[in-house]
Design goal:
Layout (H helix, E strand, L loop, with lengths): L3 H13 L4 H4 L2 E12 L2 E6 L2 E7 L2 E2 L14 H13 L5 E8 L5 E5 L2 H7 L4 E2 L8 H17 L12 H11 L5
Parallel strand pairs: 3-6
Antiparallel strand pairs: 1-2, 1-5, 2-3, 4-7, 5-6
């Protein structure tokens, strides 16, 4: 005869393990672009629903973040670069990969993520999850080529990691008494 824990433990593990169905089969939706928030985030419309999409695998400078070399706003430049690419798209297909910690959808709009890297609009997110090593190397190669050719934001020396920049800029904004 089985003991209670031999039955309950496997059942309990089913509830404790979070299974995201998009890991098994990515969801693809036809959407309309409502607006671009910055170089790596957009709001799209699916039916009557508005969805905030964080472009998976890429990282753009924050609005107001300066270039490493030269003058200007790297975040505004990145967003303008992304807008230029998106304006050429007629139909947008949102491929959903999951959700981030801010409850935004992680996804790709009609292959935009790789195009953003190729055109020098963004860098790579350091903790990005790629579907395969081949896909990861495709993004790394695109980034290296954009830097080598000084495309987009790499023309002015690139940008500091947005996470580090936010941390440093918040320390500067603290009023000391």
């Amino acid at each position: 005869m089985r003991r209670p824990y031999q039955i309950l433990l496997p059942l309990l593990s089913l509830f404790l393990v979070r299974v995201d169905l998009t890991d098994l089969y990515p969801l693809v939706l036809n959407v309309q672009l409502v607006r671009l928030l910055d170089g790596d985030t957009a709001v799209v419309k699916y039916g009557r629903q508005f969805i905030t999409v964080r472009f998976s695998g890429v990282d753009a400078p924050e609005l107001g973040q300066p270039f490493l070399l030269g003058e200007g706003d790297a975040g505004v430049s990145s967003a303008a670069c992304a807008r230029k690419i998106l304006n050429k798209q007629k139909e947008l297909k949102l491929q959903i990969f999951g959700q981030d910690m801010y409850k935004r959808i992680l996804g790709d709009l009609s292959g935009l993520n790789l195009q953003l890297v190729q055109k020098g609009c963004v860098g790579l997110y350091p903790h990005a999850n790629f579907s395969s090593k081949r896909e990861k190397w495709k993004f790394i190669h695109a980034l290296n080529q954009a830097k080598k050719r000084k495309l987009g934001i790499w023309r002015s020396g690139g940008f500091q990691s947005p996470k580090l920049w936010r941390k440093k800029s918040s320390k500067r904004n603290v009023v000391r008494r």
